[in-house]
Design brief:
heterodimer; A: about 475 residues; alpha/beta; VC0802-like; Rossmann fold; eight-stranded mixed β-sheet; 17 helices; B: alpha+beta; N-terminal domain of TfIIb; 4 helices; 4 strands; methyltransferase activity (chain B)
Chain lengths: ~475, ~120
Amino acid sequence: MWYLCVFYHRLLDYRKPEVESLAELFGAFEDQKGRHLKWKLPEDHHPDSPFHFVNLPSEQVARDIANRSILVKGIYELWGEGSTFEELEAAIKAYPEDRKLPFLTQDSTFRITVDSFGKVISFQEQTARIQKLAFIPFKGRVNLKNPDHRFWLMETDDYGANNGLPPVVKRRHFFGREIGGADRKLLPTYQLKSRTYLGPTAMDAEMAFLMANQAMAKPGKLVYDPFVGTGSILVAAAHFGAMTMGADIDIRVVRDGRGPECNVWSNFKQYGLPMPIGLLRADNNLPPWRPGLKEMFDAIICDPPYGVRAGGRKSGGRKLLKGVIGPYTVSDHQRNDHIPSTAPYSLVECVHDLFDLAARMLVMRGRLVFFYPVALEDDSMGIMDNVFPEHPCFELIASSEQILSSRYSRVLLTMVKTSPYTADIEEAARLRHLDFRENHLKWLEDGNLHSAVFSPADALAAAETDTKVSREPKPKYRGKYV
Amino acid sequence: MRLLTHNMLSCNIKGVTNGFPLIIEAEKVLEKPVDLNPDFLRNMFHKVEWKALVDAAKSLGYSELPESVDPAMLESPEFLHRFHHALLELHLEEGALVCPETGRKFPVNKGIPNMLLHEDEV
């Protein structure tokens, strides 16, 4: 059945993939092969519009999706739509009685909310609009706080430059019954400014929940983050009931934090969430898993260090930095208190190790969800063509861009493990690993995102005729298609 | 560190072939209650090296696990409870993990095993 799905007008690229992941989580695809839903746009609407129609198998699935989603404002059974109020009225009257009457009975309570996109409707106008709906035979009593049925009258505006969107040709009115809506207390509860222990790259709560939804975190599943830091991603997974496990190369973060009441554990305690079942200090480049261990995790979610705000490190520091893999020996009397040095970890190698880890340690159909940075200068060959890292065990099912500055974006990649980890793949990964070690310095020079992001603007402008672009007013809003 | 984590770890020093299971030197052991999730336990049962878990539990002072197991035992609530206790509720808070081949000690402080290698071990 088709439902009206209204989104919050943010993170536009993340909206449909989230709904599709949740649809899979709640069993919408049990009888079909595909993992994509059917979507439709209202007449004359732009793909970035917050109003979409989505085909879902049942009202229960629609409710489950809406209640867990972060970007869905609500999912509605549409009773009517139209370009004018008169058209809307005719459409509602034409909607089958047997779909309407069960929700209009005498013993039920209801409320009507008037909502708009792109303009503000005053309180008086809202009341006037509700009164114009008197043709609908409401028999129940009004209850504003806790009604049995919630009805929504929504409209889009038709004037001027639509908040950065290309102008919508016609005004559109929608009237529908709410099936489910987002939990609005979730994000204020988890917002980073009230989090006890934060690091410089702690994941924003909203994004962390989106990542947990892409990973389909739920009770009984085990979720792993190899770059756990302060645990900001695992907190979201734990909120959805998943068991969590994390590793980090920086022991000060995972072990000590900022004291007994300000560390990774306290971040979980703060929200009454179950503690991670394992935290360890380990190097993702040389993971300490026992031989033969595989298919352990249901999902791997992470934000790899890509060298803009924080660079990655791996073991083998001084040996690699000398440019040769020569002898470097720790003397026996120093061995117990020795603090091993680390070497920089290039993004290419980091992503390679992440794929190898995920291919081995994820269950079949398990999900790998991670951020990948894209410098906008190489846009011509990059993001628009969806050129992302690949691995024979994984199928890319969603990529969602978030623009971070005029220089670079990050893309959330969601991949599914579709083939098992074979001996051939393991051997290829081992050879690649050796190549990274032997040519450590060469790999470090390639793909240095930090300089692309932080080099002075003058240098860039001199290199290109960038001045014309900078004179144009910056749009408040940038979507993929605008 | 819970014994589930211990069951996954081995010594990965270059050239070591028998780095599993790591021998536990316990200085401080804690018990932290965790809600029992039977589905999770059934899921983990097939992935755990049983003998390593039994020995690790013993070195933390818990010897209620049977030496040999088969999947039919997962139907018994009593067994699930013991398995749950050993796998998720026993914590090695302070101590070390010792590589059975080289004797290299990986310290465990505040419940966090430090598995990072020295420069001459990678």
